Amino acid sequence: MSQIVTRIAPSPTGYMHIGTARAALFNWLFARHHNGRFLLRIEDTDRSRSTPEATEAIYRGMKWLGMDWDGEAISQFARADRHADVAHQMLANGTAYKCYATKEEIDAFREAAREAGRPPLFLSPWRDSAETPDLPYVIRLKAPRDGETTINDVVQGTVTWKNETLDDMILLRSDGTPTYMLAVVVDDHDMGITHIIRGDDHLTNAARQSQIYTAMGWDIPVFAHIPLVYGPDGKKLSKRHGAMGVEEYQAMGYYPDAVMNYLARLGWSHGDDEFFTMKQAIDWFRLEDVVKSPARFDFKKLENLSGQHIRAADNETLLAKLEEFLSATGQTDLTDAQKRLMFAGMDGMKERAKTFPELLEMAHFILGTRPFVPDEKAAKLLDTVSRGMLNRLTSRLRGVSWTHDILEAEIRAFAETEEIGLGKVAQPLRAALTGRTISPSVFDMMVLLGKDESIARLEDASV
RNA sequence: GCGCCCUUCGUCUAUCGGUUAGGACGCUAGGUUUUCAUCCUGGAAAGAGGGGUUCGAUUCCCCUAGGGCGUACCA
User: Fold this and answer.
1) Options 3.40.50.620, 3.20.20.450, 2.40.100.10, 3.40.50.410; which CATH number does A5-75+229-301 get?
2) At what angle do helices A384-397 and A422-434 cross, to 10 degrees?
3) Which residues does chain A have with pLDDT short of 70?
4) Which nucleotide shows the minimum CA-to-C1' distance to residue A265?
């Protein structure tokens, strides 16, 4: 078989829908699995919505998720002349006709049909007319009225429609611009798309589009209509559910590979594998393993996967991703000194975080500055009794060598002297060191911070 | 209305006629632990309903119910 070519064709709406990202992912996985090409086409025929910024949002979303496309993105709008040209070719070869029916006539036809209990499909009187009045017209496909149209869909199987349920769709509007139906077919054909992988809301379109391919004598690509994703309540995904746009997921601080991992598992599976890299997904991906039923979005599972990916990431990559998060959300960059400490302390922080905001929370002892004002819970731990205890501990620590093992031994011994559990020492110590009740190991933090800084923080807290 | 698609634990899914219906998230009981998290062990939890076909159906077929998508001079 010749090289496989897939595409994602989003329309620029100002953000990249998470469902679009998933369709892109399946196309991308499939193309990469087969060493094929994955193309990007911007469906920017709606001029009012198609701004450079909206297109930029798509690029950003794709890049953040790590999906690279081959060649330059193609503008559908720029190809309008070619689309019109094809419509006229169809006119010439008799597979399309000029229809002079007005909007009012069509509406009246539909209404009458509905009242009579007949299908509201418009049957144009101009279909077989030889007349060519000097009036505005649209070009309609002369779709077959008898027989059936069948598509062989890799995911949906063989799906058949009676042609009488499909009408003569408009290809070229009266103002000479192409409709979506025409444009996709022409573009997909010209771009050499071999496999069309898209949401199953396009299933019916596939039948109508295949009629255009047939009319032009073009090869029909392989269709794969993947099930849609809904919100946690089974309703269409909307703002109400928290997030629709890819950038919102980025802003919430999910690890990008985890979003991809999660999206891939919605409707596709490889045995019992739940956690995997994109490299593995590319290796495993087969259209045959995509299910037909729709899935609901589960933020809990996404969060869990994000945690797994953060834990599995090497510290250097993780730090880079964190910086990307910081800049994407407009937060201040890390200084070199902070980066060094973050890198050194990453092991202790990453296993405690599922998202970047949580990672940042764990890094408070590095990113914050003295004096560390305790939050409400931490303040409770630093009562008079604890501060006295901390004072005694501090003077004892002034004389010791600052290594993890020595500090641990020293503090454990101190707890015994005080006749309290280690926890009773560690918690106030943590509060003094970070102003929080949650953090990485106190011993690890002290080593990372160094003796002077640690002692200084303890002194701050004992006042 | 018509057309098409879907239906296994709460959620995502495995099962390609014969399984104690498996895994994951979540939930829950316990263990490890300086907090949190991680990690480890256990538990509850599913074939929409009804007909067939078959020695045997979650699996194949039909009907019903429920859900979704489409039915534009939108994409």
Assistant:
1) 3.40.50.620
2) 90
3) 1
4) B12
Torsion of CA A179, A184, A190, A192, to 10 degrees: -170
Phi-psi region of A267 (alpha: psi -120 to 50; beta: other; left: phi over 0): left
Residue A327 makes CB contacts below 8 A (sequence gap 6+) with A333
- Does the model's ipTM exceed the 0.90 cut? yes
Query: What pLDDT, on the 0 to 100 scale, is given for residue A47?
Result: 80
Look at domain A376-462 and name its CATH class: mainly alpha
| CATH code of the region A78-226 | 3.40.50.620
Q: CB of A364 within 8 A of CB of A439?
A: yes
Strands A37-42 and A74-75: parallel
How many Cβ atoms sit within 10 Å of the Cβ of residue A211?
23
Q: Which is nearest to A207 in space by CA: A156, A169, A159, A139?
A: A159
Phi-psi region of A138 (alpha: psi -120 to 50; beta: other; left: phi over 0): beta
pLDDT at A1: 56
The reply to whether domains A5-75+229-301 and A376-462 share a CATH topology is no
Q: Which bases of chain B are under 7 A from a protein CB atom?
A: 1-8, 10-14, 22-26, 34-39, 67-75
Which residues of A are part of the catalytic machinery? 239
Element (H, E) at A213: helix A203-216
Take residue A134 and report the two structure tokens written for it.
Answer: 């000097």
Report how far residue A258's alpha carbon sits from residue A450's, in angstroms, rounded to the nearest whole number.
Answer: 35
Count Cβ atoms below 10 Å from residue A286 Cβ, excluding itself. 12
Cα A305 to Cα A62, A110, A256: the distances in Å are 20, 50, 10
**Spatial distance from the CA of A327 to the C1' of B25 (Å):** 30
Task: Report how far residue A3's alpha carbon sits from residue A37's, in angstroms, rounded to the nearest whole number.
Answer: 8
